[in-house]
Write a structure and sequence with these properties.
- This protein has a single domain, classed as TIM Barrel.
- The protein contains twelve helices and nine strands.
- Strands 5-4-3-2-1-9-8-7-6 form a nine-stranded parallel sheet.
- Helix 10 crosses helix 12.
- It is globular and about 45 Å long.
- Tetramer of two alpha and two beta chains.
């Protein structure tokens, strides 16, 4: 039934000095996953990253891989997820996180069309390089879906400038080299990657990969426009905490960020 558009929502919020919070939810991991989406929104999420399960997730660590396997074993497909989302309404933007194979399997136009109908207004495709972006970028933008691009600690300044110029909705700053997963501490790569991005005009800078606790979320919020949290939330869902546990965790992040 729909969700707000990503770019204007985030532009408005950041203009009010509001720090963005984007939790990641693995679609189809259990029967309550849509309830988890609503719970994290009620707890203070400004957008929700909807993960589509994929058999070979190159950027995902053990926790999200486990959730993806569980989802695939339940028969989840990209189309089944988008169909479920289409039947509901959400108070914040939805950003799909997937891999290019999933998009290519359906075709750019079909995937974008079904995603648009589902209320998706942003897309993160981490294995689609800048050099191969043109075809998907054109179709996505025609459908009102913002291509969200990533800058890693290893990205050169020249490449970072190009990514900043082409990312829409927000710019995903990768806090550390490696796959997603919970971490006991944040590294100095966090400040370095944000400083590198800040050298160029870009949409709001949101940082993820390894953000696991309210204290870490606060550290990110002190230097970036937004915080992305995935594995730490997905672990709670895998452990059976359900929508209530997911909401409580996201509320703790929101409170720390706003403190």
């Amino acid at each position: 039934m729909g969700a707000p558009n990503l770019s204007p929502t985030f532009e408005s919020l950041t203009s009010q000095n509001h720090t963005l919070l984007i939790p990641y939810v693995m679609a189809g991991v259990d029967d309550a996953w849509i309830d988890v989406v609503h719970a994290v929104i009620a707890a203070g999420a400004d957008a929700v990253e909807i993960g589509l399960p994929f058999s070979d997730p190159i950027i995902d660590g053990p926790t999200i891989q486990e959730a993806g396997v569980r989802s695939l074993e339940r028969g989840t497909t990209a189309q089944s997820v988008l169909a479920q989302l289409q039947r509901d309404e959400f108070a914040v933007p939805l950003v799909v996180m997937t891999y290019y194979n999933v998009i290519a399997h359906l075709g750019h136009e079909r995937f974008a069309g079904e995603a648009k109908q589902a209320g998706i207004t942003g897309a993160i495709v981490p294995d689609l390089s800048l050099e191969e972006l043109d075809g998907w970028e054109r179709v996505a933008e025609d459908a009102g879906i913002d291509p969200v691009l990533l800058v890693a600690p290893s990205s050169s300044p020249e490449r970072t400038k190009k990514i900043c110029a082409r990312s829409r909705g927000f710019l995903y700053g990768v806090a550390r080299m490696g796959v997603t997963g919970e971490r006991s501490s944040m590294t100095d790569e966090l400040e370095a990657v944000v400083a590198k991005i800040r050298a160029f005009p870009s949409p709001p800078v949101c940082v993820g990969i390894g953000v696991s606790t309210p204290e870490q979320a606060k550290r990110v919020a002190d230097i970036a426009d937004g915080v992305i949290v995935g594995s730490a939330l997905v672990r709670r869902v895998l452990d059976g905490e359900g929508p209530d546990g997911a909401g409580a965790f996201v509320s703790s992040l929101r409170n720390a960020i706003d403190a």
